[in-house]
């Protein structure tokens, strides 16, 4: 399904747990994804969120279309120093030409770490 070998997804340790256009869930370790102060890097949360939103948009688009990211924004709510974070993506809009997802990243205690919104443009796949 999701080719991750040699990608940022693999490097970050992101593991897709559930994947459907209506809901996606993935986990990511904090270790190896920190900034110099030992906290989960905000950019790592955004990578997790954008991965989920992009996969969801691609699933919604179908096999003859592609999803191209056009917007991502994130609000970071709390710091995490260890363990695993979980991202859960749910659609805000699944249209013919765009798909938008809200992604909530939580720590192992279920506390919200980050909230992100990702919008992708849906286009016809280029000829092979």
TrEMBL record:
GO function terms (MF aspect): 1,4-dihydroxy-2-naphthoyl-CoA thioesterase activity
UniProt GO cellular component terms: cytosol
One Pfam family matching this protein: 4HBT
Domain Thioesterase: 37-114
EC annotation from Swiss-Prot or TrEMBL: 3.1.2.28
EC category: hydrolase
Keyword entries, A-Z: Hydrolase
Family to which this protein belongs: Belongs to the thioesterase PaaI family.
Record protein name field: 1,4-dihydroxy-2-naphthoyl-CoA hydrolase in menaquinone biosynthesis
């Amino acid at each position: 399904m999701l080719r991750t070998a040699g990608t940022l997804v693999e490097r970050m340790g992101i593991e897709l747990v559930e994947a459907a256009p209506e809901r996606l869930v993935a986990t990511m370790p904090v270790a190896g994804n920190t900034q110099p102060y030992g906290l989960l890097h905000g950019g790592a949360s955004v990578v997790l969120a954008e991965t989920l939103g992009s996969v969801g948009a691609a699933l919604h688009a179908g096999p003859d279309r592609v999803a191209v990211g056009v917007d991502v924004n994130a609000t970071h709510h709390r710091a995490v120093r260890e363990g695993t974070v979980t991202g859960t993506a749910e659609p805000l809009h699944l249209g013919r030409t765009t798909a938008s997802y809200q992604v909530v990243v939580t720590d192992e205690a279920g506390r919200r770490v980050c909230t992100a919104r990702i919008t992708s443009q849906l286009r016809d796949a280029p000829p092979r």
